[in-house]
Amino acid sequence: MRFQKYILNEEYEYIEFCNFVNSYDIITEGIISSAIGKLKDKLEFMKSIASTLNVGIDSIIKMFKDKRIFKFFQKVGWSMKKLFELAKKGFKLYHQVMDAIAEYISNTKIGKWTEEELKKLDAWLAKHPKTKRIAGIAVAAILIYIWFNMTFTGDFTYDFNMNDLLLALGGTLTLSTLFAGKDGTKLLLLFATGMIGLSFPWPGPSHILFALAVFGTLTTIMKNRIPEIRSKVKGYLK
């Protein structure tokens, strides 16, 4: 019952937000002053993002009207600091997975990565002491780290499913279930062949670059991408 109540509260927050911003013909910073309670806190958070990226508040609010993006920030407590900490945790856990895969390759002398061999690797990771306990938020941390890092470096060849990330943040995704299915096999192959080569942290003013990586990534999952944000990301990467 408590979990159901939490889900209902999450849904209510999203509906309240949409109803509020939709009641204005033109979205400006002035609408924040008329908001109250938790809604005002969320809008202040969005305003801080707009300021960091140097884009209009209307562009940021348009992004947050996408339910997946709103839910994503719900689950990270409307905090870029917490999100950054998750990315750092993902960096450490990602290397644990890579170390375990290297150990597997060393022990088995694998020649070619077939689907069957990848299934064996997945099963081995599910039992390995370094990786068997990676679940829930830890899986989300790995996904966040890879997702934002790959986007920041301009590699859009692999597009993670936003639903997987939300499931992981909700604590219902394990490393093994992440690698299950066609998309999971593809991701595991990228791990096994070392095709995901990432570093951390990013150079330069990290808070700006991290925000660009985050919102540059999130615009890729939207059907109507936000031109202002996309151009800002591309301009900063030149």
Q: What can you tell me about this protein's structure?
A:
The structure is a single chain. The chain is mainly alpha-helical. The protein has two domains: 1-65, no CATH class; 80-192, no CATH class. It is 71% helix and 0% strand. The protein has helices spanning 2-22, 30-34, 37-53, 57-64, 67-75, 80-108, 115-127, 137-152, 162-169, 175-178, 181-192, 206-220, 227-237. The longest helix is centred in the middle third of the chain and has 29 residues, at 80-108. The radius of gyration is 19 Å and the shape is elongated.
Q: What is the element layout, followed by pairings?
A:
Blueprint: H1 2-22, H2 30-34, H3 37-53, H4 57-64, H5 67-75, H6 80-108, H7 115-127, H8 137-152, H9 162-169, H10 175-178, H11 181-192, H12 206-220, H13 227-237
Helix pairs in contact: 3-4, 5-9, 6-8, 7-11, 8-9, 8-12, 12-13
Strand residues, percent: under 5%
Distance between the termini: 51 Å
- What profile does the largest beta sheet have? none
The total beta strand count reads 0
Number of individual domains? 2
The Cα radius of gyration reads: 19 Å
